[in-house]
Amino acid sequence: MMVRVFLIEPVVGVYAFSMFMLYPLIQQYVYRRLWQQLTGAPYPTQMNYTHCSDSSTNVSSIHQEIQKEASLFLFYSELCFLFPSLLSSLLLVSYSDHRGRKVALVPPLVGELLFALCYATVSHLSLSLGYLLGASFLAGVMGGPTALLGGSFAYIADLCEEEGVEGGGVKYLCEEVVGSMDIVGIGARDGGSYQCEGGRGGGGDDCRDRGMSGGSGEGEQRRDGERDRGKDGGKDRERDGESDGQGDRERDGERDRGKDRGKDRERDGESDGQGDRERDGGRDRDRESDGQGDRDGGSRERDWGKGGGRTVRMAALEMLLGVLSGLASLCTGFYIQTAGFTWPFITAAVLHLINLVYTAWVLQETVERPSHTDSSSSPSSSPTPFGVGSARFLQREALIGRFQGVYLLFTASPRRRKTVLGLILAAFAFYTVSKLGGMSIFILYELNAPLCWSEVLVGYGSALSTLIYLGSFAGVSLLSRCLRDGYIVLLGLLSVAAGLLMAAFAKSTLLMFLVRLPLLLSIMPAPVLRSMMSKIVLRSEQGAVFACVAFVEMLSIGVGITVFSSTYASTVSWFPGFSFLLASAIALIPAVLIGVVMCLRLDKDEEASRLTADDDEEETESCGQSLQLPH
Fold first, then answer.
1. 3-state class of 175 per DSSP?
2. Where does the chain cross the membrane (predicted)?
């Protein structure tokens, strides 16, 4: 019996482990290569604290020079990755609405595989660092992490579509297609509702149970209705029998009454028998449907990875990303001491290859691809009769249509929804600049005086950062039960500002480790903001909105790393913690924007439902005005 896998978490988990094996590797490898180039001597692996922090020695000035050069090289590498990835991530994630989510998942994995192999080659052969800039450009062309994460979050949105229900519950929608049977199953949490639809061939079944105390299935609803109708029919026949029996008593006496009662009992028996046969038939149909589902490819229990709340599952994805990245960073320090740099790069490449195989051939698709027959039979899909030229024309027009979907997400939406989406996107952008831009220089700051951390301490610090993701996931899981999304975001932004402010004045190893404590809730804004944007758009626009999020995230990461790398290089000689102060101040901007959204009461679930309902109406009205392109 075939098992279909819808688990996107292994893809993100293995990708995070591999990527964060590379991230500290890259910074430390570049740092050591620049040390060799500037000093002409190998890097002192057992450098002691006094030798590093003594400002009177020549080593201290060398440290500052290498800090500047390493920061600038990482800045150039980020630029080579940024510009191509901006366009490619936007294209891949938005195009996944049409061609399936794997369009946004497979290319980034291929790019990261080639990226790791290039670093392994440069490390093993001691080639020029310029080749690493080319590897960064290639990885950016293939989409990078933002395209993969955008496709992953859209994949989750396809599986778990939350809707508010009366009584404060949350309803999640999960779809599947089994053979020729289309099944839509809706479960409920916290007093939600349940709905399931099915159809096979030309027929269809429908079952709906809106009771808040728990759902019952289609067979029970039908059997209850048939049982009630049977009872009502029996009562009507009894009343008719009593009326007829009174007339018989007046005409024929007690003899005829017995006959009429006998006839009534026979009719009642036939009615009860008919009801029993209908109920038995309903059970047989249910069993037949279940058996057919098993024969067509497995029952619902064999679809791994379906269900769950959208916000919590997105937070779980962020948590998985952080936990495995910390574990990878912890392993990297010992791996470098044991085997150098080449083998860790090769290990990361092998993990990307395994992940690529799983994504391409094991993971199931959630978006049905349009068939060539349908596209060829459509009147709008045959603009020219010139064979290959026509096919290329259609592909070009369909590609333009993917960008049109992102464009219409803002131009064809109600003004209220555009305002909410713009404010949340802006808040997400400033949050990304503040958090990732500030934390991107953690390793350089830790390698510099007065900390002078070794690769093992760097690994310990990165591993300790996994507490940030665990704390943020626990925070979202618990706080989402009692607080609005806006308050959760504000708490996360406060955590970001406090943690970076503390890092600016961390001058000892213990204090730098303790910086992770105020940062415990700093990841919460990312999944909550994504969920807020996903809730206010239609199901057919999930890819478009996550493409916008991926574009904004990649742009924000590039701007953040660019600004803070150059700022750190300029201020490292007189105050290395200035970049952290700047990042802490920037975290106040998204707090103000979310405050505006909350003051306008635009972050409530009922408001989100109203926004999508208004969008449905305006979409119907503007159907004739919008540009229609072939797909």
1. strand
2. 6-26, 73-93, 113-133, 315-336, 342-363, 420-445, 457-479, 486-505, 511-532, 544-565, 577-600
